[in-house]
Specification:
- This protein is an alpha/beta fold.
- Helix content is about 30%, strand content about 20%.
- The strands form 2 sheets. The protein has a 5-stranded antiparallel beta sheet. The chain has a 4-stranded parallel beta sheet with strand order 8-7-6-9, sandwiched between helices.
- Helix 3 packs across helix 4.
- It is elongated and about 65 Å long.
- It starts with a strand and ends with a strand.
Amino acid sequence: ANEVLVEAMVSLISPGTERAFFTAMPNTRLKFPALAVGYSHIGRIIATGDDVEGVAVGDIVASNARHVSPARLTADCLVKVPRNLDLNEAAFFNLLAIALQGVRKAAIEIGESVCVIGQGLIGQFALQFARMNGAFPVAAVDPVESRLDLSRACGADAVINPQTGNVSEAAADLTDGRGFDVVIE
């Protein structure tokens, strides 16, 4: 009675953990399809139970449903997607939430120096959220030059490739010898 059926429209595969399972990387215990994956699902409600309130058939919603269609979910785990938001962009909601949680838990104060280690998708988001939170300077660390180029374009004050540069020296230079106030990995 409190459940809905949601027809998938977009389902995002995370570029880290999920991709590792899909490609059977050596750091994974289980291989797809033995493991049920998915947690960034955008879809249209196609049916509702009698006790469902707050959402209706036809609403576009975000949820943590697996890569399935239709998904059966309780109505309380759905969030309506704003009409003007591109659904491909909306699918990033969970990855954005992961990055934002790290930045919020760090309780960054204006002017604190921040180093974000790892400039994959979540690290890129964390770098930008730290910057929006008032962090200065913000440094990005990653061994992949193309990721560091993107970090630079997204507002990093410094980029450090640990294979070619010294993170400790860069930290000392950026922070007058204090080291970073916050490090997010």
